[in-house]
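quick q for whoever's on today - can somebody do inverse folding on this one?? i tried earlier but teh output was garbage lol. tokens:
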């Protein structure tokens, strides 16, 4: 079973900069959630992983998995929709994920999560203007083994995970199959139908093959499929959300299918390594339901189909010396079809229409991206390192869009059929200067540019000018990574200033609200992460993030000037603190426990700073025992039963007013793990 508390966290190896290095040697503000943190912290999905990292936020404006949004240091997708790219680059097993709906499924076969804060324009490029979140799979092992875990809890929570590893040819060929399923009853009561919604019904499977014909050559083939089937969306009135009640005459039922094939290869030579990642992925989403007023005012639906193909080839030096380098090429293409409709019911007369009047938007979108990237690190004296890097990219986006009105003329969007495309070119440079002050202590300064291309208004557009422009961010950062007191203390610090130019936002237009660009925003802040092992078996950890994120210019908001307001989803203060303990009670059995406190200060869900979530804290607890090949534990999430909003929007009085989604209530359960 897992050895819960190990050595210094800075000694753990990760692939933050596309090569395997000690966390303490990488000059970047980053966090790592490995098997210990995820297993003991009870982290089940991406949303819970984000909550465990300071400076990150996960939100949704409509409650469904299509509209999820990750922000890092206040930068993400301020406008959430099919035509707007995420503001944080997302990777699963080194494969770039182009749409937010393709990320955030339950974890099956996962090994660790790496979080990189701040723009990562050089090595990660596309959509990495806010940072990057990377999920790494546990690879097949050259042994015969198996493991399984089951959990049960309140709200009829049931979860099962299992994997089996087979050494087909010892030391040469191995296979691993992982499966998982999760079901949970609803946590929000719908007064209109009497149902409990916001339930879960998910399952997934993954098959991995690893071939190692000799020590210098490695091939992997991964196949995966995940499926969500649930009434997951539970938007309610802004205040009703905190009471876990809503009024949806037709609750929003949705489904999501996410599958892919990945082929990876690694060749090692005496001077450099060559890595190749080829992937094909498909994401399907569909959902429809009514408003949340209990008055049957309107109904809407969204249906997406997304296919993507990507290829990346990287070369990196592997010889010791004063020079290290890496570089490569990234190719990406996708085909995206989306259809959205809105149907007016009891409010139809307000628009001069009859009950059941419907308008539909349909968009077919294609894009391709090609990029060259690289960086060189020079140790010009034994304790000083200079890194220079950059990325040159070219991107094309194409759209064929149509908005079809009902028989009596459009009122929800401009009736039109438009076909157009745009090209984007970008250069994102990077410079890092690092200095080893002492063994185990490193200071650095860093400057890097992030970039996100423009896009199109692709649903209910209020303008014939569908296009909006790219956005950029320059990040200036200084940090310290340190391990001291006989490796019993890790302390990592970072401070930064990010200049965000032309963020993609909602803006005014003569015919209504559209996605466009504001002037600029500035984010000032810092992070501190501490891990202290005061005695054998004990670990005390705390992560703290602070930021002041504001619009410097945003005069073209649809309602009024938002200049000077705080950025959406940007708590000034986020923190995660935990105390962990383990102790052998017999030579083969040890007891363990972890208590955790997560805190987020107040945040706004909108640029006008009207939809506010006050600060809140979440308490989590895990206690249990580990033996030879088994583990049993009891866990509690949100033990104080704190109700808090995870997203909000203002649809206007006619369409239901201010609505919000709510986080999970108190959950208590138990789990059993076995290994063979």
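ok took a stab at it. sequence:
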């Amino acid at each position: 079973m897992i050895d819960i508390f190990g050595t210094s966290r800075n000694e753990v190896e990760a692939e933050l900069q596309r090569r395997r290095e000690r966390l303490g040697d990488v000059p970047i503000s980053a966090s790592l959630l490995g098997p210990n943190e995820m297993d003991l912290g009870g982290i089940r999905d991406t949303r819970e992983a984000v909550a465990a990292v300071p400076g990150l936020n996960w939100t949704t404006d409509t409650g469904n998995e299509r509209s999820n949004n990750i922000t890092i240091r206040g930068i993400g997708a301020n406008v959430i929709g099919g035509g707007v790219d995420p503001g944080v680059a997302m990777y699963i097993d080194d494969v770039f994920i182009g749409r937010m709906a393709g990320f955030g499924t339950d974890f099956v076969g996962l090994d660790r999560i790496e979080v990189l804060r701040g723009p990562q324009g050089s090595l990660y490029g596309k959509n990495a203007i806010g940072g990057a979140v990377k999920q790494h799979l546990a690879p097949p092992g050259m042994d015969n083994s198996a493991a399984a875990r089951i959990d049960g809890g309140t709200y009829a929570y049931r979860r099962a995970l299992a994997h089996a590893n087979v050494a087909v040819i010892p030391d040469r060929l191995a296979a691993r199959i992982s499966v998982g399923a999760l079901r949970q009853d609803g946590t929000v009561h719908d007064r209109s139908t009497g149902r409990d919604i916001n339930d879960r019904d998910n399952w997934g499977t993954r098959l991995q093959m690893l071939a190692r014909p000799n020590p210098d050559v490695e091939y992997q083939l991964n196949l995966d499929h995940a499926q969500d089937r649930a009434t997951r969306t539970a938007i309610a009135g802004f205040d009703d959300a905190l009471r876990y009640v809503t009024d949806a005459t037709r609750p929003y039922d949705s489904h999501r299918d996410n599958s892919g094939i990945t082929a990876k290869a690694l060749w090692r030579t005496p001077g450099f390594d060559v890595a190749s990642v080829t992937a094909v992925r498909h994401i399907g989403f569909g959902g429809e339901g009514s408003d949340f007023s209990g008055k049957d005012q309107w109904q809407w639906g969204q249906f997406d189909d997304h296919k993507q193909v990507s290829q990346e080839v990287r070369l990196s030096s592997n010889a010791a010396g004063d020079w290290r380098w890496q570089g490569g090429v990234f190719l990406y293409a996708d085909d995206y079809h989306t259809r959205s409709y809105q149907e007016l019911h009891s409010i139809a007369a307000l628009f001069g229409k009859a009950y059941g009047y419907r308008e539909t938007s349909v968009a077919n979108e294609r894009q391709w991206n090609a990029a060259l990237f690289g960086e060189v690190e020079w140790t010009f004296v034994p304790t000083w390192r200079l890194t220079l890097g950059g990325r040159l990219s070219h991107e094309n986006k194409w759209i064929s869009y149509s908005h079809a009105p009902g028989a009596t003329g459009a009122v929800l969007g401009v009736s039109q059929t438009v076909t157009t495309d745009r090209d984007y070119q970008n250069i994102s440079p990077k410079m890092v200067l690092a200095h080893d002050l002492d063994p185990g202590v490193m200071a650095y300064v860093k400057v890097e540019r992030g970039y996100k291309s423009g896009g199109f208004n692709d649903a209910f557009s209020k303008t014939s000018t569908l296009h909006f422009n790219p956005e950029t961010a320059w990040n200036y950062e200084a940090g310290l990574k340190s391990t001291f007191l006989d490796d019993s203390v890790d302390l990592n610090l970072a401070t930064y200033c990010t200049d965000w130019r032309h963020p993609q936002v909602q803006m005014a237009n003569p015919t209504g609200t559209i996605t466009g660009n504001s002037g600029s925003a500035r984010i000032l802040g810092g992070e501190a992460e501490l891990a202290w092992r005061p005695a054998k078996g004990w670990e005390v950890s705390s992560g703290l993030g602070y930021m002041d994120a504001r619009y410097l210019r945003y005069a073209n908001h649809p309602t009024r000037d938002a200049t000077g307001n705080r950025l959406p989803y940007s708590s000034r203060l986020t923190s995660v603190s935990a105390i962990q303990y383990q102790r052998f009670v017999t030579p083969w059995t040890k007891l363990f426990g972890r208590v955790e406190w997560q805190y987020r200060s107040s945040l706004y869900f909108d640029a006008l700073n009207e939809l506010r979530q006050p600060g809140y804290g979440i308490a989590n607890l895990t206690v249990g025992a580990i033996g030879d090949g088994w583990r049993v534990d009891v866990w509690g999430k949100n033990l104080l039963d704190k109700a808090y909003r995870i997203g909000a929007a203002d649809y206007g009085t006619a369409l239901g007013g201010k609505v919000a989604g709510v986080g999970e209530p108190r959950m208590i359960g138990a789990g059993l793990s076995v290994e063979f």
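fwiw The chain is about 0% helix and 60% strand. also The first helix runs from residue 35 to 40. so keep that in mind when u check it
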